[in-house]
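Each record in this resource describes a single protein on a pair of labelled lines. An example record follows, reproduced without changes.
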Amino acid sequence: MEPLPATRVHVEALHSRLCLRLAELHRPLVADVMRVFLEVSSLAKEQGLWSLEFAFDDDDTRAARMEARFWDPRDAAPVAAELEGYEVQLVMPRLIPVTPVADRKKAADHVLVMAAAHGGLVARFVQALTDLGAYRAVEPIEALSVEAHLL
């Protein structure tokens, strides 16, 4: 049996840690899921964190996805389709309650702390999140389900 590439082992270890940390969340608020996702992903910021992504999968914004991709710097230039990674899939309630703007601003404080603590790619990703009104609207929502998968 051929040994797994270093990035695969690294990603699998991060994925395992992510799953454990997500399981510890008693109420999976989107904000807390994002915090855990960023904390675990940023552990690899010096060892190959290549990209972070947040996207809604449905037109009605009931499903969202967070994705992290990694690249072993010892490898040749990366091809996006070949990058190892993991994703977190969230399913939210059918009706998203309207959150007052003041509460949205308060809810985003945790991501600002992540930006200050980690810099670089994580900071740019966090800045994009704070500017993304759709994310800010779902940030205080409790997800109906949260699943993490290797890519």
User: Anything to note?
Assistant: The chain is about 45% helix and 20% strand. Residues 6-150 form one domain. The first strand starts at residue 49 and ends at 56.
